[in-house]
Amino acid sequence: MTGPIKTARAKLNHQARILDAASTAFLENGFEFTSTADIAQLARVSKRELYACFADKRAILAAVIARLQQEIHSQVNLSWSSSEDIGNVLTMAGTEILNFISSEKFGKLFRIVAAETFRDPVSAEKFYLLGPGVGRENTASFLKRRMAAGDLRKADPLRAADDFLDLIISARYLTAIVLGQNREVLLTRKHVKHAVEMFLGYYASPAPANVSGRKERPGRNRVPRTTVLEQ
Length: 231
Hints:
Helix content is about 70%, strand content about 0%. By secondary structure, the protein is mainly α. It has 2 domains: about 55 residues, Homeodomain-like (Arc Repressor Mutant, subunit A, Orthogonal Bundle); about 170 residues, Tetracycline Repressor, domain 2 (Orthogonal Bundle). The longest helix is centred in the first third of the chain and has 28 residues. It starts with a helix and ends in a 28-residue tail after the last helix. The C terminus is likely disordered.
């Protein structure tokens, strides 16, 4: 068993080095002007070893994007697993998402993928499912749990996830990222705070009415707008 295990470990090591090298090369030279020979040389592997791990350059790009998306999913999922006040959780998750998409690394790779999708629609769908698609599902799962707990009013979790993500990743910010104008995405805390307040203004569960007909003050699991983190 030692031989196969050693071979598998060597392949994983090669894959990691290839992805590190490809990320650097794609960001510096662009996808079109980076060859598999360039990547192999930078990764210190032979072309035979490179093709043993990836079918072609587009497969390498897909793996680079998948790894990058996994990084943000891991970070945001830590927030989604929290049982804290829902306003605080949404603020933490929204901040992680906005910081991620406004990073220079994401902006460059996003523009590369956008350009390649016109040439390869199948890859475009794959990129979506690996990235935004997974993020949407994870957000919806969290919101569904909080709806069941009474923190949010009953609604379609996927629609609620779309509304939250649209508020965080606004059209203005996404346009700035596509055009490489990341300086426009500077007031992260203020933007996220406003987005969370808007979301909870619509989706937060109303406080229950008491016998006199007056609304009771929200309890631990009820979230008024004032509980959103002051950033």
